[in-house]
Amino acid sequence: MMQEVNPKDTTRAYAFEMWTKAPMPMVTLIKTLDVTRLRRFSRKRGLKFNMLMCWCIGRAATQVKEFYMLPVGDKLIGYDSIAVNTIVANSEGEVSSCDIPFSDDPRGIISVPSHPDGWCPCSPLS
Q1: Is the Cα torsion angle 7, 12, 17, 23 positive or negative in sign?
Q2: CATH at 40
Q3: Of 41, 61, 69, 116, which is most buried with the most CB atoms under 10 A?
């Protein structure tokens, strides 16, 4: 479920103001992580490493209340759940944007409905 939120009533007021004034708004987070244990877990359980990375990002994001609010046009919208947005290659060799709903169980990502062009509902990026 989503609902409009007054930015001035949140901790995101300044960020929202800057976002709406930016000519090309985008946020990129960069952090170096030691993923050795995750790689071992991936191999041991037969789970895709990239899928587990998406799950870890989603798990971390669920701990931060600000990640449940996103600017949509000139409004700030609050959501009751989150998804991890990924960029994936499709069967035509192009890239598509894919929103994967977060689940507390990492195996929940595997159960995302199939799509003819890949492993999740994707929309081509142009």
Answers
A1: negative
A2: 3.30.559.10
A3: 69
Provide the number of structural domains found in the chain: 1
Question: How many angstroms from the chain centroid is the CA of residue 124?
Answer: 16
Q: 29-51 pLDDT, tens per residue?
A: 778 889 999 999 999 988 888 88
Q: What does the pLDDT look like over 40-98, one tens digit per residue?
A: 999 998 888 888 888 888 888 888 888 888 888 888 999 998 887 777 777 788 888 87
What is the value of pTM for the model shown? 0.64
Whole-angstrom CA distances from 31 to 3, 34, 122 are 31, 10, 26
Closest CA to 8 of 61, 75, 79: 75
